[in-house]
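Ticket #4471: structure output looks truncated?

Reporter: J.K.
Steps to reproduce: submitted the chain below (195 residues) through the standard prediction queue, then opened the result file.
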Amino acid sequence: MAGKATRQQIVDAADQLFYSQGFDHTSFADIAAAVEISRGNFYYHFRTKDEILDAVIAKRLADRQALLASWDERGGTAQQRIACFIRIVIINQSKIMAWGCPVGTLTSELEKLEHASRNRANEIMALFRDWLVARFEEMGSGAAAQEHALHVLSWSQGVATLAQTFKDEAFVRREVEQILAWLEDLADGERSKDF
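Returned output as attached by the reporter:
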């Protein structure tokens, strides 16, 4: 059991360090120091940095799947569940202002590095896209569901980037209010099609 706990501590520490420092700028020594274990113990669990990256990507994917599932399990309308996704930039605002979006920064960095794990990391963005498409389909968007999903996803990445750049909380709040108003207008339009 202690081995599994140590492995999870390594993955959790690497996840945070890859987010705050970037994958490329995080060393084995950084992660070992954060977990307070020897390098030998570290190598027992992970032989390469790429193995750690794969574990971090799997963790982030599982965490996001659980988050999306929790919104679906809570119920509510598709519009309300999409609003949960939109509000995540407010909920995680301090982290986003410090380091950007944990998914967007990782996928961007791995693309720049042409890293072998970049396609696996991109699965997290695809998870968001597919979940949003399904919610917009529930709202009645039909063929426009993909377009609407990508609009919300690109909006979230743009807001995260500008929040990190300008550190402006009022900007983030305004952007959230505007996209929620767009979503409300869209939902009203979709509802009017039903009559």
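Triage note (M.O.): checked the attachment and the full token line is present. Residues 1-47 form a domain with the Arc Repressor Mutant, subunit A fold (CATH 1.10.10.60).
Status: closed, working as intended.
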